[in-house]
Amino acid sequence: MTRVGKTATVQFPSRVGVWWNSEPWPIREAQGIARDIEALGFGSLFMPEGGGKDALVESAAFLAATDRLVVGTGIANIHFRIPIPAETGARTLAALHPGRFVLGLGVGHAPFVEGNLQGSYRKPLATMRTYLERMNSVPADIEQGARPARVLAALGPKMVELSGELADGAHPYCVTPEHTATARAILGPDKWLIPEQAVVLGGDSDDQIRRARTHVGFYLELQNYRNSLLRQGFDESDLQSGGSDRLTKALVGMGSAEHVAASLTAHLDAGADHVVVQIVGDGPTSDPRPALRELAAALQL
């Protein structure tokens, strides 16, 4: 799916992709999973950057292992690398794989940046603006014409606005379809909007809610997400004790493969160009493929 009129071209084979934490997996095994994701009909593979591996290097490995799959960073942390090599590295991947690479960028979280990286976490919006302006200063003749789509991990309205001003769109995480509709209204029609949607498949209802609450509870420890959820219409009572049932069910698609598929299409109906599904398992080394096979059949990919 190539959207005419977008500010940067991305050639998604389909409108549903995958968000998968590949960092715990040996890279050759991870490449095999990327090939399976492509064969199932999913249009993309986005991966996070939590400090274990370099997301741009992983992206290069997944692009080399596949033929049509779009690969994106979801997200590359701007505190990990200075702006110039971030831009030139992304251009290099775009030159080698035209229309198949999306550079997702984010400011990360204060406890991680200041603790693990011993960096400085101040004024995320201003920090991101300065970073993007420095990226834009790279001369056009470096990998001339190779311009990857650049999207921001935008949650609040001001970061969404910046996504439209200095980037090619937004890649929101841990959001409802209502957030997607709001982001689309801010961005307008000509910017990419690629939200993530967590889902649980397999097991009985008690097991599904257990996995979903464990997943959601992790993000409730991070102030960025707490603030985002309050803006999305939840209240402090929803954010206690690992998250209320109301919160968990709003953020995680559960039930049959058909119910889960509906949680993805809800984002598309709300204005997303592409949605990436995260399979919530019992840990970071859970194999996402069994659930993805079920979901691909339900979506008729």
TrEMBL record:
It comes from the Bacteria. CDD domains: Tetrahydromethanopterin_reductase. Residues 13-272 form the Luciferase-like domain. This is LLM class F420-dependent oxidoreductase. NCBIfam families: F420_MSMEG_4141. GO terms for molecular function: oxidoreductase activity, acting on paired donors, with incorporation or reduction of molecular oxygen. InterPro entries: F420-G6PD/mer (IPR050564), Lucif-like_OxRdatse_MSMEG_4141 (IPR019922), Luciferase-like_dom (IPR011251), Luciferase-like_sf (IPR036661). PANTHER family: CONSERVED HYPOTHETICAL ALANINE AND PROLINE-RICH PROTEIN (PTHR43244:SF2), PTHR43244. Gene3D superfamilies: Luciferase-like domain. SUPFAM superfamilies: Bacterial luciferase-like (SSF51679).
